[in-house]
Amino acid sequence: MFASIKFINHDIIHYLENILQNLPMKKVSTYLLLSCGMLALSLNASAHGLAAGHQARLDARIAPCDAAWVDGAVYTAGNKVSYNGVNYSAAYWTQGNNPASSSGARTAAQPWVTGASCQQTKAAANGHDANFSPATLQFLKTNTGLDGEQWDNIMKLINKPEQDSLDWTKYYGYCENINDDRGYTIGIFGATTGGPNDGGPDGPALFKEFDAASGAANPSIAGGLARAGAHGNMQGAILNITDSKADFYKKIAALQNNAAWREAMWRTFYNVYIKYSLQQARQRGFTTALTIGSFVDTALNQGASGDSGTLEGVLSRSGKSTDEKTFMTSFYAQRSKIVDTHQYNQPPNGKNRVKEWSTLLNQGETDLKNADAAVIKVTDWTMH
């Protein structure tokens, strides 16, 4: 960059020397003023180039943030997380240790090794499909009419209030008992094993689908558990896991990149929540990605059908309007009344959850196409 400044200034001086040699003295002063102006402009432009290049190099040095640390999740040696704009890597098996207060250099014997400062990255518009396997992408297009970009945006909107992260693909191996009397919560849509507050869990279906996706001729829940290396038994509709909590966490975490597990996750997600949500949207004449995503988010958060708090219950109180925006405005208002009750969400996370969708509706982002910036903006709120 300095060489370019030298080159530009030399050209200007050489040019002016040739002119001045053939000019009367009375015009010399005019051209000297002109030369000063040209020189100043060249220096100013070069200085801006230097500043821009310096900033670009600084930006390039800031690492992208890894998935956000989840309190209560199990991490094993080498796992990477981010917390408050800093990346960390696990030194050994750890659970519940906040990286900010339990970290240091690799020799510090702390559970977390402090990494570099980081910044949240924005997904490229043409990179949405890469978050799905070709088989899952085709399955979703065929059965829902929505493409990879639309489903990627839906999942970001869902994952923010679930995991405080837009990096939803990092949660296929998520497993945690969040003490909501629903047993273990698993994966990208929060499949549960069941408990006092969940008498019809979807975890059993997930393990059966896993067995099927892995090639079983006669898939079963027991077969899926065995493929995961886990142990448990059915007690009525409840899947009772007999492994220790720590062992079960590790076994589910090990499935993060298992292709059959990921495929089973999406098949179960579709059968339990997406299919019903689509039916409810289409029977009302609604087909936009935003409406379908709103219904799916409600179903997985509060249940698809049953009592007044489920998607079915909220829909029953949302009116009969055939105008999609009018109906959805009422739907969001009704959902906001209950979304922070019954352990659905910790207040005020539920209302912020609904606000993501309602804000996009008011902005006209109903197809969730070319909506990267809008999605990032509406998910920029603080979890409690």
Automatic annotation (TrEMBL):
Coiled-coil region(s) at which residues? none
E.C. number, please? Answer: 3.2.1.132
Which keywords annotate this record?
Answer: Glycosidase, Hydrolase, Signal
Pfam families associated with the record: CBM_5_12, Glyco_hydro_46
Tell me the Gene Ontology biological-process terms attached to this UniProt entry: carbohydrate metabolic process
One GO MF term attached to the UniProt entry: carbohydrate binding
Q: Return the CDD domains for the record.
A: ChiC_BD
Q: One GO term of the cellular component aspect?
A: extracellular region
Q: What is this protein called?
A: Chitosanase
